[in-house]
Amino acid sequence: MSQPRNGTTPGDVEEIHWPSLVAAVSSISAVGIAIGLGLPLLSIILEKRGIPSTLIGLNTAMAGVAAMAAAPITTKLAHKYGVAPTMIWAVVISAISALGFYYAQDFWMWFPLRFAFHGATTTLFILSEFWINAASPPSKRGFVLGIYATVLSFGFAGGPLLFSILGSDGILPFAVGAGAVLLAAIPIYIARYESPVLEEKPELHFMRYVFLVPTATAAVFIFGAVEAGGLALFPIYAVRASFTESQAALLLTVMGIGNVIFQIPVGLLSDRMKDKRSLLAAMAFMGLIGSLMLPVLVHSWILMATVLLFWGGCVAGLYTVGLSHLGSRLTGSDLAAANAAFVFCYAVGTVAGPQVIGAAIDVAGNDGFAWAIAGFFGLYALLSAVRLLFLRKRA
Known about the structure:
Layout: H1 18-48, H2 53-60, H3 62-81, H4 83-103, H5 110-134, H6 141-166, H7 172-183, H8 185-190, H9 208-212, H10 214-240, H11 245-261, H12 263-271, H13 277-297, H14 301-329, H15 332-364, H16 368-394
């Protein structure tokens, strides 16, 4: 499909625009690799330097703080300077800060570096998702976002694999991470004339978009909480339940496989549904049932793996379908601002999830892990049911 040289107006596409899709997906996948490589790398290096675990956790938490700070200003930057130029600058800042960790010997310097790196990558997340939504025809939006989520999952999985190969010594792992991020600038630059145009400023204040499409923003909040809290604390839960460390790691791998293989099918299913809220409610309900089954199945690795395979798909599906629902409701600058609110809610979830789930384990014992996650899913299932009931009564 041909597009004007000065960009596209979001919402006017009838066919998948592959140059835009490749630019957005490949850029964010490179960032996924860098983040997946950087998180364990930085933690291991700080551990070697004798930094206390509490301070390591505090430094890591700067990722969520940076994301919440960057989300409200990303749309303003893209409106002023353009989507593609803003993304390219974000790539440069991410790469410089990634390499900066190697040269920063004082621990305090890692706080502004974390803030710069994760603030810039948040900008890339927001604008790449906006670009994908804008470049996707409504009838195929779920399929396209399924591709995006699948490739992004591979990117996050590839980072730890690179870390296992490169190790933590020397400049090489930092150079590889920075190089992966810089590669993202190439497809963005090639497709720069195809990037969506923000002709008008968003009509509403940033926080209003959080509540404008509550089914989508609540879905990504739950996804962030369950993903961050689950990945961080599941190994502890599994080991306390008498699994070995290797068995716990394999269960996480199975969950990740479910995350990857179900995204395109879930996206295709969402394309067949006029109202995607019912699908989001169904996935939340399945996530609730899966969570409640964990304490019952905890003595069987095979049964646990089977549940986690489908459970992983449900968790990640909240993100994919929530993003698709967002794109089906809004266009233009409103969509860009809503994407920023979407990522903001994800960041809040990543901060809240580990705190709530960790506290639940302390209060209720090991099964508190499952009860807390079930609580997150239950709240969203209830919200979705109330919204659907309210909308049907209005109709």
